[in-house]
Automatic annotation (TrEMBL):
<dbReference type="InterPro" id="IPR005234">
    <property type="entry name" value="ScpB_csome_segregation"/>
</dbReference>
<dbReference type="Pfam" id="PF04079">
    <property type="entry name" value="SMC_ScpB"/>
</dbReference>
<keyword id="KW-0132">Cell division</keyword>
<dbReference type="InterPro" id="IPR036390">
    <property type="entry name" value="WH_DNA-bd_sf"/>
</dbReference>
<comment type="function">
    <text>Participates in chromosomal partition during cell division. May act via the formation of a condensin-like complex containing Smc and ScpA that pull DNA away from mid-cell into both cell halves.</text>
</comment>
<keyword id="KW-0159">Chromosome partition</keyword>
<comment type="similarity">
    <text>Belongs to the ScpB family.</text>
</comment>
<feature type="region of interest" description="Disordered">
    <location>
        <begin position="178"/>
        <end position="202"/>
    </location>
</feature>
<dbReference type="GO" id="GO:0051304">
    <property type="term" value="P:chromosome separation"/>
</dbReference>
<keyword id="KW-0963">Cytoplasm</keyword>
<comment type="subunit">
    <text>Homodimer. Homodimerization may be required to stabilize the binding of ScpA to the Smc head domains. Component of a cohesin-like complex composed of ScpA, ScpB and the Smc homodimer, in which ScpA and ScpB bind to the head domain of Smc. The presence of the three proteins is required for the association of the complex with DNA.</text>
</comment>
<feature type="compositionally biased region" description="Basic and acidic residues">
    <location>
        <begin position="184"/>
        <end position="202"/>
    </location>
</feature>
<dbReference type="InterPro" id="IPR036388">
    <property type="entry name" value="WH-like_DNA-bd_sf"/>
</dbReference>
<dbReference type="GO" id="GO:0005737">
    <property type="term" value="C:cytoplasm"/>
</dbReference>
<dbReference type="GO" id="GO:0051301">
    <property type="term" value="P:cell division"/>
</dbReference>
<keyword id="KW-0131">Cell cycle</keyword>
<dbReference type="GO" id="GO:0006260">
    <property type="term" value="P:DNA replication"/>
</dbReference>
Length: 202
């Protein structure tokens, strides 16, 4: 293949990734550029190697079923310092705990989340929905048909994951002392979970 042809397509791919706010799937890049997916993948790898060799401030990542350009982790402190005044507020401890429960137990209902955390989850769910980190995944076939919640593609992009299988194991995740999972709950003589006294979410 003509090297100039490869370079031209590489720059086209670079331009597409640069203007896209979300990871771009391989098949979409193939359709737009007009090359087979295997050739697109080869040229993307060449671009990634070029960025690494030249120590650019960004890198090419495969995440959430697509490809994107992202700043390198070693420059994150500068990026955060630049974005902090204008960026959105971070998640509260309550919202992070709720998000962790949803990520590892999805699909899960609000009542199940509250059973695990021992506190109301309305505010945290509203925050996570507003930030598009979670979404409704249907309704559970149970009394009242409660809404089921699960994570979104935006969740994967936000945490740099290609799939949910890349979530760290629970042993690697720091769990707050007051965050109790069902298997860890105190049980009565009949083996049933002892519910915590309901307390208002902070």
């Amino acid at each position: 293949m003509d090297p100039l042809f490869v370079e031209d397509r590489s720059r086209e791919l670079e331009a597409l990734l640069f203007v896209s706010p979300d990871p771009v799937p391989l098949d979409l890049l193939s359709d737009v550029v007009g090359l087979p997916p295997e050739e697109i993948e080869k040229q993307l790898k060449a671009l990634a190697a070029e960025y690494d060799q030249q120590r650019r401030g960004w890198q090419l990542e495969e995440v959430a079923g697509g490809y994107r350009l992202a700043t390198r982790p070693e420059y994150s402190a500068y990026v955060m310092r630049f974005l902090k005044p204008q960026g959105p507020q971070g998640l509260s401890k309550a919202a992070l705990e709720t998000l962790a429960i949803i990520a590892y137990h999805q699909p899960v209902t609000r009542a199940e989340i509250e059973e695990i955390r021992g506190v109301k989850a309305d505010r945290s769910l509203a925050t996570l929905l507003g930030k598009k980190l979670i979404q409704e995944k249907g309704r559970k076939e149970a009394l009242g048909r409660p809404i089921l919640y699960g994570t979104t593609d935006h969740f994967l992009r936000h945490f740099g994951l290609r799939t949910l299988e890349e979530l760290p194991s629970l042993d690697e995740v720091f769990v707050q002392p007051d965050l109790t999972f069902p298997e860890e709950q105190e049980r009565n003589n009949e083996g049933e979970p002892v519910k915590k006294q309901e307390r208002k979410e902070l």
